[in-house]
Amino acid sequence: MPETEGIPCLLMRGGTSKGALFLASDLPADPGERDDVLLRLMGSPDPRQVDGLGGAHPLTSKVAVIARSQDAGADIDYLFLQVGVDTALVTSRQNCGNILAAVGPFAVERGLVPASDGHTDVRIRMVNTGSVATARFATPGGVVDYDGGPASGGAVAIDGVPGTAAAIRLNFEATAGSSTGALFPTGKVLDHAEGVDMTCVDNGMPSVLMRAADLGLTGEEAPADLEADERLAQRLAGLRLTAADLMGMGDVSGATVPKLVLLAPPRAGGSIATRSFLPVRVHTSIGVLGALTVAAGVLAEGSVGHDLATLPLPGEPLRVEHPSGHFDVEVAVDSTTDGYTVTRSTALRTARKIFDGRVFPRPRL
Predict the structure, then answer these.
(1) Which 3 state secondary structure label does DSSP give 272?
(2) Given this model, what pLDDT does residue 254 score?
(3) What is the distance between the alpha carbons of residues 240 and 258, in angstroms, rounded to a whole number?
(4) 38, 112, 160, 311: least buried by Cβ within 10 Å?
(5) Can you say whether the dihedral through the CA atoms of 173, 177, 178, 181 is positive or negative?
């Protein structure tokens, strides 16, 4: 299809992120050509992304590429791509659990999965890691209900998003999908590097957990204040490279993972307080896979966050506090002779269809 005719696109909010969702068949099959098109569609590189769909922040510069799955254990294949804002970067080195919340409804909207009258379950293979999650959402009369009407069980609110919407329950199989191959990639729940204790953990999002206090912080700082601290940014950049090497991730200087998460005791009745780096910008809340990973990390005895946390009683969710409020997740971690194993990872999100139409890439620079 010529670019002048536009490319079919569904712009959606998923959780606390926003992204452009495409059928794989509507984009070039060659990854290099696809990424070139996506940069021009999103308006990157430009800190304002004024000439494209992007919203001038990593949380609003995301893309999902979706197709029917060739895997017998899944309905849909979902490739997540993080598009740089002020850099010409498109990377598949991480998953996104927030945009994942929009993938099931998209599959119904595009006719990839038939909807049931009531609720629909969509099994989604996350191509980035090969892991599988099931999204369950309301489809009264075979139509996706984004608002959460009475027939769908009502609406819910998630911190970081105005208003309410219909609930989307995400159930991850066994673990949320470690892209590094292990829950604790270094083989230990506690490492020490450059004078700082850290827990390197990956329950779907490779992350480095550190105590905010060890970096001279309270863990209550506003994202803008953390981003303005140039000395902190330099320290964290060095720690991230060191931790990535310990995790066997190689050179991550041009990658968005691992994420860095600063931990502090909870202040608002939750389990643990967090400030999450993306890895430079600071998350205004916390990602789905980031929250699941933090939860798995603090549940493990001896980890950097275990003694900071107020752990929930059995059967209760673990409440992760973040700059916009909190995020409740259900995570279970079992200790075995071989280490720790995640046996349950579940999160509740919402999504909304914003715009359905054709998007036109800007000319090549």
Answers:
(1) strand
(2) 87
(3) 7
(4) 311
(5) positive
CA 153 to chain CA centroid, nearest Å: 26
In this predicted model, what pLDDT tens digit does every residue of 147-175 receive, in sequence order?
Answer: 998 878 889 999 999 999 999 999 998 65
Residue 182 to residues 100, 241, 248, 333, 361, Cα–Cα distance (Å): 22, 19, 11, 13, 39
**pLDDT for residue 114:** 97
Amino acid at 38: L
DSSP string covering 279-334? SSSBPSS--HHHHHHHHHHHHSTTSTTTTT--PPPTTSPEEEEETTEEEEEEEEEE
The pLDDT, as a whole number, for residue 175 is 54
Residue with tokens 């001279």: 216
Mean pLDDT, residues 202-220 taken together: 97
Model confidence, pTM: 0.91
Residue 231 token pair:
């000395």
Please list the alpha-helical segments (H only) found in the chain: 31-42, 97-109, 223-227, 230-246, 288-299
Q: What is the DSSP letter of 195?
A: T
